[in-house]
């Protein structure tokens, strides 16, 4: 016998052997089917997790931006509240006739009866808004 015939393995052609071979092929097909099904389930699950993760990340980013907008709005509301308080104080002051008369005398150089206005060059005045303005002429009043 030569070496080629020694290395060949021949199958047994009995009914039992054929039955076992068909069963083995059937099990192999089922194993491949299960692996493919498991891979598809895994890929679908990964896809779902990726979509959910992206949505969570976008929601987190939106939450952060809304937080900064809220902080800015709260700061702006506090600023508006202080302006409102100041304006209410100004309204209360403008209801006082003596204050209005004093304000008119200082801003528009009005004077009381018998009072003389003397302009002074290069002094600073403060108006009701709290800003300091520099005028070329300023009134200094004296009663006679």
Automatic annotation (TrEMBL):
It comes from the Bacteria. Keywords: Coiled coil, Membrane, Transmembrane, Transmembrane helix. Pfam families: DivIC. Residues 70-97 form a coiled coil. The keyword Transmembrane helix applies. Residues 121-144 are annotated as: Disordered. Residues 123-144 have a biased composition (Low complexity). GO terms for biological process: cell division. The chain crosses the membrane at residues 38-57. InterPro entries: DivIC (IPR039076), FtsL/DivIC (IPR007060). This is Septum formation initiator. It comes from Enterococcus phoeniculicola ATCC BAA-412.
């Amino acid at each position: 016998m030569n070496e080629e015939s020694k290395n060949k393995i021949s199958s047994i052609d009995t009914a039992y052997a054929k039955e076992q071979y068909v069963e083995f092929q059937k099990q192999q097909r089922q194993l491949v089917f299960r692996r493919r099904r498991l891979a598809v389930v895994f890929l679908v699950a990964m896809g779902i997790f990726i979509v959910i993760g992206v949505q969570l990340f976008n929601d987190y980013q939106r939450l952060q931006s809304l937080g900064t907008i809220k902080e800015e709005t709260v700061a702006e509301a506090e600023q508006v509240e202080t302006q409102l308080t100041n304006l209410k104080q100004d309204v209360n002051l403008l209801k006082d006739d003596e204050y209005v008369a004093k304000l008119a005398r200082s801003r528009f150089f009005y004077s009381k009866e018998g009072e003389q206005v003397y302009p002074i060059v290069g002094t600073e005045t403060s108006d009701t808004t709290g800003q300091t303005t520099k005028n070329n002429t300023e009134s200094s009043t004296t009663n006679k």
